[in-house]
Specification:
The structure holds two protein chains of two kinds. Chain A is mainly beta. Chain A has no helices and ten strands. The termini of chain B are far apart. Chain B is mainly beta. Chain B is globular. The chains are: A mainly beta, B mainly beta.
C-alpha cells in the first residue's frame, strides 16, 4: 500500500507570497493518478489538480502541479485571501482499487 | 450543475446501524462511479467505499470491510451506505463523491456537503 506524506504540515504565508506544497509517496505513483484537492474550513473538498499537473475546470492559473515518481508539488504562485485552506494530495492504486489521501498541508495567514 | 446531497447522519450507539443516502442530480448518474469518503473531526480525508456505475463492482477500505455496504439505485439517482456494527472510530463527516467519469475513475470530481455521523453511547 502506497503511503503519501505531505510537507510542511502548516505553511504560514502572507497574501501575495508563493506557496510550495510537497507530496511524497512511499513508492512510485503513476503521475496520471496523482490529484490535489483544496478544502476550506467547514466546506467539502474541491478538486484542484488531476493527473499531477492538469487544472480542474474553473481553477485559477495561479495553481499549478508538477512532479513524477515519488515527489509531487503543488504551487500557488501568488496567494489570494481565498487560498488559505488545507490542501490534500491523493493517489489511486489498483488491484484491488483503492484511493489514498495524504494528511494535508494547512496554508494559513501569517 | 452537479448536486450531491447526503442525508441520514445522526447520533448512534456503538454496535448499532445507520444508513446514509446521497441524492444526485445535474448529471447522468448511471454513467459514473460513486464513492463515500469520510473525515473524522479535525482529521484528514479517508476513502471508504466505491461502487461502479452499474453496481457491478464494489470495493471497501480495510477499516470498514465486512461492516459497511455501498449500493445504488440508478432509477432513483441515489447512492447509499449501510453502516453496521458502528464503532466510535467511525465518527466522521461522510461525503459522497462522484468520480471523474470515463478515464477519470481515479479522482473525485464533485462532492456533497457531507453528513455527520456520531457514534457514542
Amino acid at each position: 500500500e502506497i503511503v503519501l506524506t505531505q510537507s510542511p504540515g502548516t505553511l504560514s504565508l502572507s497574501p501575495g507570497e508563493r506557496a510550495t506544497l510537497s507530496c511524497r509517496a512511499s513508492q512510485s505513483v503513476i503521475s496520471s493518478y496523482l490529484v490535489w484537492y483544496q478544502q476550506k474550513s467547514g466546506q467539502a473538498p474541491r478538486l484542484l489538480i488531476y493527473g499531477a499537473s492538469s487544472r480542474a475546470t474553473g481553477v485559477p492559473d495561479r495553481f499549478s502541479g508538477s512532479g513524477y515518481g515519488t515527489d509531487f508539488t503543488l504551487t500557488i504562485s501568488r496567494l489570494e485571501p481565498e487560498d488559505f485552506a488545507v490542501y490534500y494530495c491523493q493517489q489511486y492504486g489498483g488491484s484491488p482499487p483503492s484511493w489514498t489521501f495524504g494528511p494535508g498541508t494547512k496554508v494559513e495567514i501569517k | 450543475q452537479v448536486q450531491l446531497v447526503e442525508s441520514g447522519g445522526g447520533v448512534v450507539q456503538p454496535g448499532r446501524s445507520l444508513r446514509l443516502s446521497c441524492a444526485a442530480s445535474g448529471f447522468t448518474f448511471n454513467t459514473y462511479g460513486m464513492h463515500w469518503v469520510r473525515q473524522a473531526p479535525g482529521k484528514g480525508l479517508e476513502w471508504v467505499a466505491v461502487i461502479w456505475y452499474d453496481g457491478s463492482n464494489k470495493y471497501y477500505a480495510d477499516s470498514v470491510k465486512g461492516r459497511f455496504t455501498i449500493s445504488r439505485d440508478n432509477s432513483k439517482n441515489t447512492l447509499y451506505l449501510q453502516m453496521n456494527s458502528l464503532r466510535a472510530e467511525d465518527t466522521a463527516v461522510y461525503y459522497c463523491a462522484r468520480d471523474g467519469g470515463w478515464g477519470g475513475y481515479y479522482r473525485f470530481d464533485s462532492w456533497g456537503q457531507g453528513t455527520l455521523v456520531t457514534v457514542s453511547s
